[in-house]
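Structure Section — protein described below
Tokens — whole-number codes for backbone shape
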Amino acid sequence: MSLHSEILEQPRCLAGMLENERQHILEIAAKIREHKPAYVMLAARGTSDNAGRYANYLLGGVNRLPLALATPSLFTYYQTPPLMQNALVIGISQSGQSPDIVSVLKEGRDQGCQTLAITNVPGSPITQVADDVIDIHTGPEFATAATKTYSAELMALAMLSAALSGDEQSWQELEKVAGWVEEMCILDSSIAVVAQRYRYMHQCVVLGRGYNYSTAFEWALKLKELTYVEAEPYSSADFMHGPIAMVNGGFPVLAVIPQGKVYSSMLETLSQLKHDLNAELVVISNSEEALALAQTPIRIPAEVPEWLTPLVSIIPAQLFAYHLTAIKGYDTEKPRTINKVTETK
């Protein structure tokens, strides 16, 4: 099993996740509604932390649940955990082993909070301190860079949101995700071709906003850990507050801009980058107007609803990072310095 094959395996993984966990997640959602949490405290690291960024917009925007991303050092080194009265405490960890994430859930349980773990390893330490566990069902992930476990974490969160909302249309849309992701996998060979243009890229910025704030961070992370490119992720709004000064003629700007609530704001930013600063744009979108601005346009299906675009848009981002890694002559399976399982305190 290789990184490339794990990327292309995602349609099967997401279809399996929906089939295997739907009833279980409906039961978990019923417990959550019964507890009536005031907010969510979510703990994660690395790629899983980017899934947490998706949860921030998803649970906040769809379910009206405020969400705070935990600061694990307060629980471990500082030994001053915040008071989490009436919180739902969620831990996301592919391996389920990171001591700092486990410590947040343990403290939540000790404070009488409802706790939920999302992991790929049933029986791992994080599951021992969770009231409920969502298994993301991807099977072993052998490549160091996480791909299928990330999209499965997003799927778990999307299913949880749908279950909490009780909206049947959301489930109907979730049933289409695997097919949309399959359409993205078909772009594999064309992305391999366009990635050649960026062989000598050493730095870039990656922009997203709203639901795809998470996608910007995850795309940048994949570029950093696989290609060693200095890829800096930003909200397109934050980007205007200073970092835009980095951009001059030909500077690469990668952007995820599907149609939705933040589309017009992002389109205005990209138009300025293109016409005033002559930036080199790589754009993932389902809008012809946005794609027309790009030197490298990557089209996602027009019918994907905004709340599910992160599950679809991350696939071409992963393929772009994979092919650029191979083009640069780096190891796609075991990047330098990093390990598959990182345990931090």
